[in-house]
């Protein structure tokens, strides 16, 4: 993973970690259910953005490298990994 992507993702994940702690506090304080669900959706969206950033970087470097290497087995492996993770994300 490129350093700027790593830094960006870590920053986002720390923010998400704070959101999750806030959610636990909301549950502990018996906050209004819809407010909690709204914050859960926001945290889920934030995680999805981190996931997209990491996947984009993976395709731009790991998959691109496999393609340019000419190694057919590595190409198939990288594409299969990518398809597997994308199909799991849809579930």
Automatic annotation (TrEMBL):
A molecular function GO annotation: metal ion binding
Gene3D superfamilies cross-referenced by the UniProt entry: Metal-sensitive repressor, helix protomer
InterPro entries, sorted: Metal_Tscrpt_repr (IPR003735), Metal_Tscrpt_repr_sf (IPR038390)
GO biological process, one term: negative regulation of DNA-templated transcription
Family stated for the protein in its record: Belongs to the FrmR/RcnR family.
Protein name: Copper-sensing transcriptional repressor CsoR
Species assigned in the record: Afipia clevelandensis ATCC 49720
